[in-house]
């Protein structure tokens, strides 16, 4: 009895290890872009970024199933500054002392190939930026209409998010907005965002 239990545990452990190795290989490449992400603090904002996280899980499983190393290889280099710099290529300035400590916001998401959670067949980054600029103009007068034209994950209310969770560029754009203000497009690891500050 003890020997059969030991064999079962050994087989279970070996299977689990094989699963981690095969699944970890494709997700490990995605983890290489983690420094551009918000880091461990992003887990604290999981409720406000749940839709993006769900997309990340789908993208990881798709990439693992396809096993296309060549397509995934260049992605981190293409996204290396996503969320780190403004669209102008400059680093975002420091937030002023009077910037809020947390905000409630909504976002229009425009994904592109290589962004977290984006399908391999997603639009190019240039096409996504053109659409983001178009939707930013719509969002200034009708945010809900812009959301309807955005990608899955766009919503008028993601809830509250504290400072220090987002990457520098989206954080600067969002926390610099007045209440009711709408940002222009900002590149994030998840795609382009157009954010609206609610509170």
Concise description?
The protein has 199 residues and is an alpha+beta fold.
What does this structure look like?
The longest helix has 30 residues, at 2-31. α1 (2-31) crosses α2 (50-66) and α5 (125-141) runs antiparallel to α6 (143-149). Helices cover 44% and strands 14% of the residues. It is globular and about 60 Å long. β3 (186-188) and β4 (191-197) form a beta hairpin. It has helices spanning 2-31, 50-66, 69-72, 75-78, 125-141, 143-149, 168-176; strands spanning 102-110, 155-162, 186-188, 191-197. It has a 4-stranded antiparallel β-sheet with strand order 2-1-4-3, sandwiched between helices. The chain is α+β, with helices and mostly antiparallel strands. 34% of the residues are buried.
H/E element sequence: HHHHEHHEHEE
Rg: 19 Å
Main beta-sheet annotation = 4 strands, antiparallel
Query: How many helices does DSSP assign?
Result: 7
Strand content: 5-15%
Strand elements, count: 4
Low-confidence stretches: 24-79
How is the largest sheet built, in terms of strand order? 2-1-4-3
- For the termini, the CA-CA separation is 63 Å
Q: What best-fitting shape do the alpha-carbon axes yield?
A: globular
Helix content: 40-55%
Average predicted confidence as pLDDT: 74
Indicate the structural class: alpha+beta
């Amino acid at each position: 009895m003890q020997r059969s239990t030991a064999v079962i545990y050994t087989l279970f452990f070996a299977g689990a290890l094989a699963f981690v190795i095969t699944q970890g290989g494709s997700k490990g490449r995605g983890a290489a872009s983690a420094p551009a992400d918000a880091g461990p603090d992003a887990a604290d904002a999981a409720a406000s970024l749940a839709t993006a996280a769900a997309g990340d899980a789908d993208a990881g499983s798709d990439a693992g199933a396809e096993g296309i190393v060549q397509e995934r290889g260049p992605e981190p280099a293409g996204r290396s500054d996503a969320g780190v710099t403004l669209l102008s290529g400059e680093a975002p300035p420091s937030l002023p002392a009077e910037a809020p400590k947390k905000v409630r916001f909504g976002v229009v998401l425009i994904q592109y190939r290589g962004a977290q959670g984006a399908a391999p067949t997603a639009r190019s980054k240039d096409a996504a930026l053109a659409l983001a600029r178009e939707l930013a103009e719509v969002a200034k007068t009708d945010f809900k209409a812009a959301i309807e034209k955005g990608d899955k994950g766009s919503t008028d209310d993601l809830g509250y998010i504290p400072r220090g969770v987002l990457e520098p560029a989206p954080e600067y754009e969002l926390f610099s907005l007045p209440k009711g203000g709408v940002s222009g497009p900002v590149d994030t690891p998840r795609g382009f965002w157009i954010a609206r500050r609610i509170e």
